[in-house]
């Protein structure tokens, strides 16, 4: 019996060693690029048209506010991650700070909002691709893009990181080239005489719709940073956890700089009144120069942006589902991973949910689906507030640790919560967004009700 026990122990040790050896990790710079790939999506390349139409040039101030808030959220999450390594990232800290129900609510809110946002990205991808292939039905493109996204995630963490890094570089390069082109115009290197629609260019009035315009646009602007939680989720795959601060700080500095410069170029190249939400503001600005194939080029860029955002969302919500399973807040089989560190059953569940969401997106009227996706964005931003609230509650327990301290605690955490509430309240100025807020409240109530009825732990 003793010999049998020793043999069994040796086999288990060898198995664990092989699994540990096979576990794939990512570097801090890959984490930064994953974050960029997951954040810069169609919402920025296309959706900024609505923000500019609502706020005018003051949209730049809105992006600065959103960027600062994002940094406050990241800084709080980084402190908790470095000083208290927990599986499940932000939802684990919510559970630790406010109890099991908070962790359950945070995790399922994130999973559901990510699922709905993924489906909207896939519908957008299909619509953009149909621009070239009008005869091909949208549902076929949806199947193709969803299959590609799941295929990339099945390759494992290391390959996923490399592919997302490539997408991030493409998007950054596009924006940098656009900024460079705009700089040549601003400094008079390029002649604008032939571009008649640019004669009224420049910022003549910062607040054409008053402070109310900026306030109501904040909710859309904050969505442009919505994928920041991916950094927290993916940090579990870092070789060295302390590098999350390096990865996140670099990520946010690059994002805010590129966002502000590119939008500054847009509102200087063209009168903001001609920008419409139906077209990318970058296309509107460049179309004045009659550049050949500009529509097709930016269509391709928007497709790559939306696709990588969808892939990043799939990665993060699948990881959160594994965390929920480990805590008993989802079926236990969903936490099982293969040799590549991929939770295949969790991905399959997400695939089923995504299929249902995409089906509804085609069946429901456009306005109804807009309500649901708006609600998803609101839930995503509300999770930021939960991260900051968890940080406020848990920070005193880190007082004897000196590895990393969040910037400006506690003022930045309280300020961040205030700015998040300010952004969400701005949705009250739009009828569709008001209904979206109501839908988000109903979805949150359903998640909490499910916890009370099915998953509640005594």
From TrEMBL:
What keywords sit in the KW lines?
A: Amino-acid transport, Membrane, Transmembrane, Transmembrane helix, Transport
Principal location listed in the UniProt entry: membrane
All copies of the Amino acid permease/ SLC12A domain together span 31-456
Q: Which InterPro entries match?
A: AA-permease/SLC12A_dom (IPR004841)
Q: Which GO terms describe its cellular component?
A: plasma membrane
- Could you tell me the superkingdom of the organism this chain comes from? Bacteria
Transmembrane regions: 26-47, 59-78, 98-118, 138-157, 169-190, 214-235, 247-270, 297-322, 342-365, 371-390, 411-429, 435-455
Any Pfam family the entry gives: AA_permease
Q: Which GO terms describe its biological process?
A: amino acid transport; transmembrane transport
Question: How is this protein situated with respect to the membrane?
Answer: Multi-pass membrane protein
Q: Where in the cell is it found?
A: Cell membrane
| Protein name stated in the entry | Amino acid permease
């Amino acid at each position: 019996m003793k010999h049998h026990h020793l043999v069994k122990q040796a086999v288990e040790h060898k198995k664990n060693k092989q699994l540990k050896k096979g576990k794939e990790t990512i570097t801090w710079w890959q984490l930064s690029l994953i974050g960029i790939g997951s954040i810069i999506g169609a919402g920025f390349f296309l959706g900024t048209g609505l923000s500019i139409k609502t706020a005018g040039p003051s949209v730049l101030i809105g992006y600065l506010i959103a960027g600062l808030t994002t940094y406050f959220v990241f800084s709080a999450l980084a402190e908790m991650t470095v000083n208290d390594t927990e599986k499940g990232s932000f939802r684990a800290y919510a559970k630790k700070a406010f109890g099991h129900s908070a962790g359950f609510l945070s995790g399922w809110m994130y999973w559901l909002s990510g699922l709905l946002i993924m489906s909207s990205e896939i519908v957008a991808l299909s619509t953009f691709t149909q621009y070239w292939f009008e005869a091909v039905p949208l549902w076929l493109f949806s199947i193709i893009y969803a299959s590609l996204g799941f295929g990339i995630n099945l390759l494992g963490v290391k390959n996923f990181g490399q592919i997302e890094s490539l997408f991030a570089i493409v998007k950054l390069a596009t924006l940098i080239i656009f900024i460079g082109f705009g700089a040549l115009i601003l400094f008079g290197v390029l002649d604008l005489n032939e571009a008649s629609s640019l004669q009224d260019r420049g910022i003549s009035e910062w607040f054409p719709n008053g402070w109310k315009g900026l306030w109501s646009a904040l909710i859309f602007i904050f969505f442009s940073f919505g994928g920041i939680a991916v950094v927290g989720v993916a940090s579990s795959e870092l070789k060295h956890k302390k590098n999350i601060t390096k990865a996140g700080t670099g990520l946010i500095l690059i994002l805010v700089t590129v966002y502000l410069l590119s939008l500054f170029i847009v509102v200087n190249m063209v009168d903001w009144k001609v920008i419409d939400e139906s077209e990318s503001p970058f296309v509107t600005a460049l179309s004045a120069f009659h550049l050949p194939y500009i529509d097709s080029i930016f269509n391709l860029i928007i497709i790559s942006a939306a696709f990588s955002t969808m892939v990043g969302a799939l990665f993060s919500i699948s990881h959160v589902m594994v965390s929920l399973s480990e805590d008993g807040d989802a079926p236990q089989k969903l936490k099982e991973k293969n040799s590549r560190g991929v939770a295949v059953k969790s991905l399959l569940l997400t695939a089923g949910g995504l299929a249902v969401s995409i089906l509804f997106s085609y069946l429901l009227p456009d306005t109804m689906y807009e309500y649901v996706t708006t609600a998803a964005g609101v839930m995503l931003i509300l999770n930021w507030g939960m991260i900051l609230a968890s940080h406020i509650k848990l920070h005193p327990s880190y007082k004897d640790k000196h590895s990393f301290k969040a910037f400006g605690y506690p003022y930045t955490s309280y300020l961040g919560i205030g700015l998040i509430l300010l952004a969400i309240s701005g949705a009250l100025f739009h009828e569709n967004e008001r209904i979206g807020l109501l839908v988000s409240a109903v979805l949150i109530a359903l998640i909490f009700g499910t916890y009370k009825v099915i998953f509640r732990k005594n």
